[in-house]
Protein backbone atom coordinates (compact mmCIF):
# COMPACT_ATOMS: atom_id res chain seq x y z
CA UNK A 1 0.00 0.00 0.00
CA UNK A 2 2.26 2.76 -1.15
CA UNK A 3 0.05 5.40 -2.65
CA UNK A 4 0.97 9.05 -2.76
CA UNK A 5 1.37 11.03 0.39
CA UNK A 6 2.41 8.37 2.89
CA UNK A 7 3.78 11.19 4.99
CA UNK A 8 0.35 12.65 5.29
CA UNK A 9 -2.05 11.12 7.75
CA UNK A 10 -5.62 11.07 6.52
CA UNK A 11 -8.53 11.78 8.78
CA UNK A 12 -10.72 8.75 9.24
CA UNK A 13 -13.24 8.76 6.41
CA UNK A 14 -16.93 8.66 7.21
CA UNK A 15 -18.14 8.06 3.68
CA UNK A 16 -19.57 4.59 3.29
CA UNK A 17 -18.62 2.76 0.15
CA UNK A 18 -20.08 -0.24 -1.55
CA UNK A 19 -18.53 -3.65 -1.28
CA UNK A 20 -15.90 -4.71 -3.76
CA UNK A 21 -17.24 -5.08 -7.24
CA UNK A 22 -15.38 -7.70 -9.26
CA UNK A 23 -15.49 -5.35 -12.27
CA UNK A 24 -13.38 -2.63 -10.66
CA UNK A 25 -9.87 -2.36 -9.24
CA UNK A 26 -7.41 0.00 -7.63
CA UNK A 27 -3.82 0.17 -8.85
CA UNK A 28 -0.88 1.18 -6.67
CA UNK A 29 2.46 1.88 -8.27
CA UNK A 30 5.63 3.91 -8.26
CA UNK A 31 8.75 4.12 -10.32
CA UNK A 32 11.93 6.09 -9.76
CA UNK A 33 13.27 7.18 -13.11
CA UNK A 34 14.49 10.45 -14.57
CA UNK A 35 11.71 12.53 -16.06
CA UNK A 36 13.00 15.49 -18.03
CA UNK A 37 9.62 17.21 -18.39
CA UNK A 38 7.32 16.35 -15.46
CA UNK A 39 4.66 18.82 -16.64
CA UNK A 40 4.33 17.07 -19.99
CA UNK A 41 4.00 13.70 -18.23
CA UNK A 42 1.45 15.17 -15.84
CA UNK A 43 -0.72 16.50 -18.68
CA UNK A 44 -0.49 13.21 -20.54
CA UNK A 45 -1.43 11.23 -17.41
CA UNK A 46 -4.31 13.57 -16.60
CA UNK A 47 -5.76 13.23 -20.11
CA UNK A 48 -5.27 9.47 -20.05
CA UNK A 49 -7.01 9.05 -16.68
CA UNK A 50 -9.84 11.39 -17.68
CA UNK A 51 -10.45 9.49 -20.90
CA UNK A 52 -10.62 6.20 -18.97
CA UNK A 53 -12.81 7.52 -16.15
CA UNK A 54 -10.17 6.81 -13.50
CA UNK A 55 -9.96 8.66 -10.21
CA UNK A 56 -7.17 8.81 -7.67
CA UNK A 57 -3.93 10.61 -6.93
CA UNK A 58 -0.79 10.75 -9.05
CA UNK A 59 2.38 12.67 -8.23
CA UNK A 60 5.10 13.25 -10.81
CA UNK A 61 8.53 14.77 -10.25
CA UNK A 62 11.90 14.80 -11.95
CA UNK A 63 12.53 11.55 -10.03
CA UNK A 64 9.55 9.51 -11.16
CA UNK A 65 5.90 8.77 -10.54
CA UNK A 66 3.82 7.63 -7.56
CA UNK A 67 0.17 6.84 -8.04
CA UNK A 68 -3.02 5.21 -6.85
CA UNK A 69 -5.94 5.09 -9.25
CA UNK A 70 -9.22 3.21 -9.35
CA UNK A 71 -11.73 2.42 -12.05
CA UNK A 72 -13.27 -0.33 -14.12
CA UNK A 73 -11.20 -3.41 -14.79
CA UNK A 74 -11.10 -2.57 -18.49
CA UNK A 75 -9.99 0.97 -17.76
CA UNK A 76 -7.19 0.03 -15.38
CA UNK A 77 -5.87 -2.56 -17.85
CA UNK A 78 -5.85 0.11 -20.56
CA UNK A 79 -4.15 2.49 -18.15
CA UNK A 80 -1.33 0.04 -17.47
CA UNK A 81 -0.79 -0.66 -21.15
CA UNK A 82 -0.71 3.01 -22.11
CA UNK A 83 1.41 4.09 -19.13
CA UNK A 84 4.04 1.46 -19.90
CA UNK A 85 4.47 3.01 -23.34
CA UNK A 86 6.50 5.77 -21.68
CA UNK A 87 10.10 4.50 -21.80
CA UNK A 88 10.87 5.16 -18.13
CA UNK A 89 7.73 3.29 -17.03
CA UNK A 90 7.93 0.25 -19.30
CA UNK A 91 8.87 -2.14 -16.50
CA UNK A 92 6.87 -0.49 -13.72
CA UNK A 93 5.13 -2.94 -11.40
CA UNK A 94 1.46 -2.36 -10.60
CA UNK A 95 -0.04 -3.71 -7.43
CA UNK A 96 -3.72 -4.62 -7.77
CA UNK A 97 -6.11 -4.04 -4.96
CA UNK A 98 -9.88 -4.28 -4.45
CA UNK A 99 -11.74 -0.99 -4.85
CA UNK A 100 -12.95 1.42 -7.49
CA UNK A 101 -12.99 5.04 -8.63
CA UNK A 102 -15.58 5.64 -5.91
CA UNK A 103 -12.86 5.23 -3.29
CA UNK A 104 -11.42 8.60 -4.39
CA UNK A 105 -13.14 11.99 -4.29
CA UNK A 106 -11.68 13.02 -7.67
CA UNK A 107 -8.74 12.75 -10.00
CA UNK A 108 -5.64 14.63 -8.90
CA UNK A 109 -2.51 14.60 -11.07
CA UNK A 110 0.21 16.95 -9.86
CA UNK A 111 3.83 17.86 -10.35
CA UNK A 112 5.82 18.13 -7.13
CA UNK A 113 9.48 18.45 -6.21
CA UNK A 114 9.47 14.91 -4.85
CA UNK A 115 7.24 11.86 -5.23
CA UNK A 116 7.80 11.20 -1.50
CA UNK A 117 8.36 14.36 0.54
CA UNK A 118 11.62 13.99 2.41
CA UNK A 119 12.73 17.55 1.67
CA UNK A 120 15.67 16.09 -0.25
CA UNK A 121 14.77 16.89 -3.86
CA UNK A 122 18.25 18.22 -4.63
CA UNK A 123 20.02 15.31 -2.99
CA UNK A 124 18.19 12.34 -4.50
CA UNK A 125 19.81 10.88 -7.60
CA UNK A 126 17.95 8.63 -10.00
CA UNK A 127 18.78 7.05 -13.32
CA UNK A 128 17.00 4.64 -15.64
CA UNK A 129 17.42 1.84 -13.07
CA UNK A 130 15.92 3.79 -10.18
CA UNK A 131 17.46 5.50 -7.17
CA UNK A 132 21.26 5.74 -7.28
CA UNK A 133 23.08 4.77 -4.09
CA UNK A 134 20.16 3.30 -2.15
CA UNK A 135 20.25 0.35 0.22
CA UNK A 136 20.68 -3.18 -1.09
CA UNK A 137 17.33 -4.68 -2.06
CA UNK A 138 16.36 -7.86 -0.22
CA UNK A 139 13.49 -10.23 -0.84
CA UNK A 140 11.54 -11.21 2.30
CA UNK A 141 13.41 -14.53 2.46
CA UNK A 142 16.74 -12.74 2.10
CA UNK A 143 15.83 -10.53 5.07
CA UNK A 144 15.53 -13.61 7.26
CA UNK A 145 18.76 -15.03 5.85
CA UNK A 146 20.61 -11.79 6.55
CA UNK A 147 19.37 -11.75 10.15
CA UNK A 148 20.62 -15.33 10.66
CA UNK A 149 23.91 -14.69 8.95
CA UNK A 150 24.68 -11.46 10.85
CA UNK A 151 23.74 -13.05 14.15
CA UNK A 152 26.56 -15.53 13.61
CA UNK A 153 29.03 -12.67 13.17
CA UNK A 154 27.92 -10.98 16.39
CA UNK A 155 26.91 -7.82 14.54
CA UNK A 156 23.13 -8.17 14.66
CA UNK A 157 20.83 -6.65 12.07
CA UNK A 158 18.95 -3.57 13.20
CA UNK A 159 15.54 -2.89 11.69
CA UNK A 160 14.96 0.82 11.07
CA UNK A 161 11.37 1.99 10.67
CA UNK A 162 10.98 4.24 7.63
CA UNK A 163 7.45 5.32 8.49
CA UNK A 164 5.91 7.90 10.76
CA UNK A 165 6.33 6.92 14.40
CA UNK A 166 2.56 6.70 14.79
CA UNK A 167 2.34 3.84 12.31
CA UNK A 168 4.80 1.78 14.35
CA UNK A 169 2.60 1.97 17.44
CA UNK A 170 0.50 -0.94 16.17
CA UNK A 171 3.13 -2.97 14.34
CA UNK A 172 6.86 -3.12 13.58
CA UNK A 173 9.71 -5.49 12.97
CA UNK A 174 11.00 -7.20 16.09
CA UNK A 175 13.34 -4.92 18.01
CA UNK A 176 13.06 -2.14 15.43
CA UNK A 177 14.41 1.35 15.95
CA UNK A 178 11.50 3.77 15.48
CA UNK A 179 12.74 7.28 14.71
CA UNK A 180 10.88 10.21 16.21
CA UNK A 181 9.16 11.46 13.06
CA UNK A 182 5.70 12.86 12.47
CA UNK A 183 6.21 13.12 8.71
CA UNK A 184 8.90 11.92 6.32
CA UNK A 185 10.20 15.50 6.34
CA UNK A 186 11.54 14.83 9.86
CA UNK A 187 13.93 12.05 8.77
CA UNK A 188 16.80 14.30 7.72
CA UNK A 189 16.79 16.04 11.10
CA UNK A 190 16.69 12.67 12.87
CA UNK A 191 19.50 11.15 10.79
CA UNK A 192 21.70 14.17 11.39
CA UNK A 193 20.95 14.39 15.13
CA UNK A 194 23.67 11.93 16.10
CA UNK A 195 21.11 9.69 17.83
CA UNK A 196 21.70 6.87 15.39
CA UNK A 197 25.45 7.19 14.86
CA UNK A 198 26.01 3.83 16.61
CA UNK A 199 24.18 2.23 13.68
CA UNK A 200 26.59 3.54 11.08
CA UNK A 201 28.67 0.35 11.15
CA UNK A 202 25.80 -2.02 11.83
CA UNK A 203 23.73 -3.87 9.23
CA UNK A 204 20.56 -1.76 9.00
CA UNK A 205 17.40 -2.98 7.27
CA UNK A 206 15.03 -0.11 6.49
CA UNK A 207 11.38 -0.92 5.97
CA UNK A 208 8.12 0.86 5.19
CA UNK A 209 4.65 -0.08 3.99
CA UNK A 210 5.25 -0.83 0.32
CA UNK A 211 8.91 0.07 -0.14
CA UNK A 212 8.77 3.53 -1.71
CA UNK A 213 9.85 5.52 1.34
CA UNK A 214 12.89 3.29 1.89
CA UNK A 215 14.07 3.85 -1.66
CA UNK A 216 14.74 7.44 -0.62
CA UNK A 217 15.48 6.91 3.07
CA UNK A 218 18.14 4.26 2.47
CA UNK A 219 19.99 6.54 0.05
CA UNK A 220 19.86 9.46 2.51
CA UNK A 221 21.30 7.14 5.18
CA UNK A 222 24.12 5.96 2.96
CA UNK A 223 24.94 9.56 2.07
CA UNK A 224 25.28 10.23 5.80
CA UNK A 225 27.75 7.49 6.60
CA UNK A 226 25.55 4.48 7.31
CA UNK A 227 27.70 1.84 5.68
CA UNK A 228 25.62 -1.33 5.53
CA UNK A 229 22.07 -0.42 4.55
CA UNK A 230 19.35 -2.69 3.11
CA UNK A 231 15.72 -2.29 2.10
CA UNK A 232 12.91 -4.80 1.71
CA UNK A 233 11.54 -5.24 -1.80
CA UNK A 234 7.80 -4.58 -1.61
CA UNK A 235 8.11 -3.47 2.02
CA UNK A 236 6.09 -4.83 4.91
CA UNK A 237 3.24 -5.73 2.58
CA UNK A 238 5.31 -8.26 0.66
CA UNK A 239 7.09 -9.55 3.76
CA UNK A 240 3.74 -10.09 5.46
CA UNK A 241 2.24 -11.77 2.43
CA UNK A 242 5.07 -14.27 2.56
CA UNK A 243 5.66 -14.81 6.27
CA UNK A 244 2.43 -13.64 7.90
CA UNK A 245 2.93 -13.54 11.65
CA UNK A 246 5.45 -16.35 11.81
CA UNK A 247 8.44 -14.25 10.71
CA UNK A 248 10.09 -11.17 12.15
CA UNK A 249 7.13 -8.83 11.71
CA UNK A 250 4.93 -8.22 14.74
CA UNK A 251 1.48 -6.68 14.98
CA UNK A 252 -0.81 -4.80 12.59
CA UNK A 253 0.07 -2.83 9.51
CA UNK A 254 -1.14 0.77 9.36
CA UNK A 255 -2.70 1.43 5.94
CA UNK A 256 -3.66 4.70 4.26
CA UNK A 257 -7.24 3.98 3.43
CA UNK A 258 -10.47 3.69 5.30
CA UNK A 259 -9.48 0.34 6.81
CA UNK A 260 -6.74 2.10 8.83
CA UNK A 261 -5.00 -1.16 9.67
CA UNK A 262 -4.68 -4.73 8.46
CA UNK A 263 -3.43 -7.96 9.91
CA UNK A 264 -1.56 -10.70 8.09
CA UNK A 265 -3.18 -13.52 10.05
CA UNK A 266 -5.38 -14.25 13.02
CA UNK A 267 -2.20 -14.63 15.07
CA UNK A 268 -1.20 -10.97 14.74
CA UNK A 269 0.22 -9.65 17.99
CA UNK A 270 -1.54 -6.67 19.54
CA UNK A 271 1.06 -3.99 20.14
CA UNK A 272 -1.04 -0.85 20.42
CA UNK A 273 -2.68 0.37 23.60
CA UNK A 274 -5.37 2.95 24.35
CA UNK A 275 -3.78 6.29 25.28
CA UNK A 276 -6.21 6.69 28.18
CA UNK A 277 -6.65 3.30 29.81
CA UNK A 278 -3.98 1.04 28.33
CA UNK A 279 -6.37 -1.53 26.86
CA UNK A 280 -4.97 -3.31 23.80
CA UNK A 281 -6.25 -1.78 20.56
CA UNK A 282 -5.13 -1.21 16.99
CA UNK A 283 -7.79 1.33 16.10
CA UNK A 284 -6.74 4.90 15.44
CA UNK A 285 -9.24 7.72 15.93
CA UNK A 286 -9.29 11.40 15.18
CA UNK A 287 -9.01 13.53 18.27
CA UNK A 288 -12.53 14.68 19.23
CA UNK A 289 -11.25 18.25 19.12
CA UNK A 290 -11.89 19.08 15.48
CA UNK A 291 -9.01 21.58 15.50
CA UNK A 292 -6.49 18.91 16.50
CA UNK A 293 -4.92 16.88 13.70
CA UNK A 294 -3.70 14.08 15.96
CA UNK A 295 -4.68 10.49 15.41
CA UNK A 296 -4.58 8.42 18.55
CA UNK A 297 -5.15 4.86 19.63
CA UNK A 298 -8.35 4.53 21.63
CA UNK A 299 -10.16 1.48 22.93
CA UNK A 300 -13.84 1.27 22.04
CA UNK A 301 -14.99 2.36 25.46
CA UNK A 302 -12.78 5.45 25.60
CA UNK A 303 -13.66 6.34 21.99
CA UNK A 304 -17.36 6.15 22.80
CA UNK A 305 -17.03 8.24 25.94
CA UNK A 306 -17.05 11.99 25.12
CA UNK A 307 -14.68 12.87 27.99
CA UNK A 308 -11.98 10.49 26.71
CA UNK A 309 -12.43 10.73 22.93
CA UNK A 310 -9.50 13.12 22.67
CA UNK A 311 -5.74 12.79 22.22
CA UNK A 312 -4.81 13.50 25.82
CA UNK A 313 -3.35 16.98 25.35
CA UNK A 314 -4.69 19.38 27.95
CA UNK A 315 -6.05 21.81 25.34
CA UNK A 316 -8.01 19.03 23.66
CA UNK A 317 -9.33 17.63 26.95
CA UNK A 318 -10.57 21.12 27.86
CA UNK A 319 -12.17 21.76 24.49
CA UNK A 320 -13.98 18.43 24.52
CA UNK A 321 -15.32 18.66 28.09
ZN1 LIG B 1 -9.40 3.09 26.74
ZN1 LIG C 1 -6.04 16.53 20.31
Automatic annotation (TrEMBL):
Question: Which keywords does UniProt give here?
Answer: Oxidoreductase, tRNA processing
Q: What is its EC number?
A: 1.14.-.-
- Spell out the InterPro entries in the cross-references: Rhodanese-like_dom (IPR001763), Rhodanese-like_dom_sf (IPR036873), Rhodanese_C (IPR022111), TrhO (IPR020936), TRHO_N (IPR040503)
The GO terms this record gives for MF are: oxidoreductase activity, acting on paired donors, with incorporation or reduction of molecular oxygen
Per UniProt, what is one Pfam family of this protein? Answer: Rhodanese_C
Q: Tell me the Gene Ontology biological-process terms attached to this UniProt entry.
A: tRNA modification
Question: Which transformation does this protein catalyse, written as a reaction?
Answer: uridine(34) in tRNA + AH2 + O2 = 5-hydroxyuridine(34) in tRNA + A + H2O
Keyword hit for Oxidoreductase: yes
Record's SMART domains?
RHOD (SM00450)
Q: Which residues form the Rhodanese domain?
A: 153-248
- The domain of life is Bacteria
Family statement drawn from the similarity comment of this UniProt entry: Belongs to the TrhO family.
| NCBIfam families, per the entry | PRK00142.1-2
State what this protein does: Catalyzes oxygen-dependent 5-hydroxyuridine (ho5U) modification at position 34 in tRNAs.
Q: What is this protein called?
A: tRNA uridine(34) hydroxylase
Which species does the entry assign this protein to? Corynebacterium glyciniphilum AJ 3170
Amino acid sequence: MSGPGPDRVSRVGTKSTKGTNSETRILLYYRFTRIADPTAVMLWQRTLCDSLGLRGRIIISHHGINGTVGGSLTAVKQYIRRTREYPGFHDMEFKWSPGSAEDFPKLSVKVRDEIVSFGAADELRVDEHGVVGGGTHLSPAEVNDLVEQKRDTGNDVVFFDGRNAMEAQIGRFRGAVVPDVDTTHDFLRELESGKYDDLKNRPVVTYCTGGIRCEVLSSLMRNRGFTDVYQIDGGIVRYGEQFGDSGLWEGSLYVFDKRMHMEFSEDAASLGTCVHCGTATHTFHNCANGECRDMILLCETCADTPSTAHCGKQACATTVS
